[in-house]
Amino acid sequence: MHVRRTYPYVMLGLMMGSVYMPGCSGDGEPSESTDFLAAGEPAPASRPATDTAPATQPAEPWFPPSPPASADFVNERHHMVETQIARPRDGRTPVTDKAVLEAMRSAPRHVFVPPERVGQAYFDHPLPIGHEQTISQPYIVALMTELMKITPESKVLEVGTGSGYQAAVLGQLTPHVYTVEIIAPLAEQAAGILREQGYTNVRVRRSDGFWGWPEEAPFDAIMVTFAPEELPEALWEQLKTGGRIVAPIGPARQTQHLMVITKTPEGKRETTHVIPVRFVPMLRD
Ligand code: SAH
């Protein structure tokens, strides 16, 4: 039985549009970018007044999306959470955050993998998604999500949309998800699946994530799902004070360290090494 959680949440009309916006380009600037919004109407050119002063708005409950495909593979998803994530038997640190486990039980991973891989969608490993990219192992998705410490008030950025699955998991936890992908067909496909599955709270942009998403900054939490050798400076700049970045940092095509980088109230950088990992390399426009 799926138990819904409700949260006080100020509704943002901004999330509900669908628009194509050519990006900017120029020296040292992000190159062309394309936004894919979730559904419906054009986005307003600027943020509505309600969006600038959320603290003064009456809180309304927020319901996480109910993706239609979540009705399928229910047992497989529960088994995945139980055996790979909440109680792995092989020494991996269990993921215990209840909201994260619920998000992993809800997000329909099988619609984000290529059709010929649907039978493996809930297996304990990454899968190819084309263009030499992969959808991360479910455990890594859950672990990185837990490390983000998201609440429904969090505004989060994912860099490296890939299949869109990680963005969907984030979209189960907060109404404010932004995700950027450098490979246009992946960005477009992920945006389409997210839209079909009702993730109107996830905005997808085709751009080089090295530059973050400056128009939507600052973010409470930022997740990087490819391996830069060093943290891109723009991501640090777009992080709120007190916020955190979860990223695999290290040399391409070798082992990297999954790191949590926090911005202290004094604006200082604090870094924690979590586990060794292997991620796909960072690409650049
Ligand atoms: N989070 C994804 C996993 C994607 S793998 C999922 O749930 O499926 C990493 C992704 O990062 C790939 O799709 C790759 O194309 C993308 N990527 C690599 N370099 C990038 C960059 N500079 N900006 C944005 N995306 C990038």
Account of the protein in words:
This protein is of the alpha/beta class. The chain has one domain (8-17, 32-41, 64-277): 3-Layer(aba) Sandwich (Rossmann fold). Helices cover 22% and strands 23% of the residues. It has helices at 49-52, 74-86, 98-106, 138-148, 165-171, 184-196, 233-237; strands at residues 7-9, 34-36, 60-62, 127-130, 133-135, 155-159, 176-181, 202-206, 219-224, 239-249, 256-263, 269-277. The strands form three sheets. It has an eight-stranded mixed β-sheet. Strands 1-3 form a two-stranded antiparallel ribbon. Helix 2 (74-86) runs antiparallel to helix 3 (98-106). The N and C termini lie far apart (45 Å). Residues 1-29 and 39-53 have low confidence and may be disordered. Bound molecules: S-adenosyl-L-homocysteine. The site of S-adenosyl-L-homocysteine (SAH) has 24 residues, from strand 5, helix 5 and strand 7. The site of S-adenosyl-L-homocysteine has 24 residues, from strand 5, helix 5 and strand 7.
